[in-house]
Amino acid sequence: MEQKTRVQHYVPRFYLKNFTFNDKQVFVYDKNEEKSFTANIYHIAYDNFFYDLPEEQAKQAGIDPQIVEKTLAGMEGNWNSLLGTIIKTIEDNKRIVIDETQRQDLAHFVTVQYLRTKENRLVQAEMVRKLGETLLSKDYSEKSEDYKVEVNNRFISSMQIGRMFDSNIELYIDTLKSHIWVIGVNNTDIPLFTSDDPIVLKPYKHSPYKSYVGLGAEGIEIAFPLTPKYILLLREKTFHNRLANKNNRTITLTKSEVRKYNELQISQSTRQVYSQKDNSDFVKDILTRHPDFRDPNRPRVIVT
Fold first, then answer.
1. Cα separation of 31 and 33, whole Å?
2. Which backbone phi and psi does 214 adopt, to 5 degrees?
């Protein structure tokens, strides 16, 4: 009988290894428990059987309940090699650090990583619940307090997996490819952090009537730390057109920019932040100023 994979990572270990201090361990700050510790990368950013399909559903379809986990494991080998090649190109001081083939493959990796996390699943669940509550309040405004919207976790899991592998993923990939791509180089004494939700979004446009948070939103910046020294930055080209001449090249980050990207990891992580060095003082300072960042039940979606 084939052994089942119990521990299923929503942030891959090959990626987390880039942030270790001994090839195995990272410094962790857990926002919910408000404590810092070191941990082996095998024991972070995972849930038991996170991607497993329900046994009955898989049996009826004639597929392996762990097909998602196995498919991701196969993809991760290629993405590991891709990141290694790009990092070597940066360190060799090549003028163009990401070619068109790598751009396609890296956009696929970024898209899947964005969609596969526990945070993304929580966002989808909250979106479904709030949409249900909004519709309920409109249809049964006088009796809406008598009804409660409950979200089926299996449905949310299936919806997340579907988004990771259906044909619409090409739309996400094309959206990312259309942005200005820059590699930020961190030469400061502060390492770049990562987290259990490493693809973070920074909107540069704001409106009370329209959301500018999304992979293709006008003015968006998408930040994905690759190592403590390098970070992939994707910037929407109409708003950030002044950076067009930096496309596929490197820029040097200031200390304040490194702090900004680390704060984004703290604010948008589900509960844990990871670093090559002890990050607890900085994280505590941010959480003192923004205590809502540590709330596991913080609002993630606004439905109007």
1. 6
2. 170, 160
Type of residue at 68: V
pLDDT digits (tens, 9 = 90+) for 122-158: 999 998 888 887 777 776 555 556 667 788 898 999 9
Helix (H/G/I), strand (E/B), else coil: 191: coil
Strands (E), the chain: 7-9, 25-30, 35-40, 46-48, 180-185, 194-195, 200-203, 220-225, 230-235, 249-252, 272-275
CB 251 within 8 A of CB 242: no
Is 146 strand, coil or helix?
A: helix
Global pTM?
A: 0.94
Residue 211's pLDDT band (boundaries 50, 70, 90)? confident
Q: Which residues contact 161 (CB under 8 A, 6 or more apart)?
A: 51, 53, 68
Question: Residue 111: what residue type?
Answer: T
Q: 269, 108, 129: which is closest to 201 by C-alpha?
A: 269
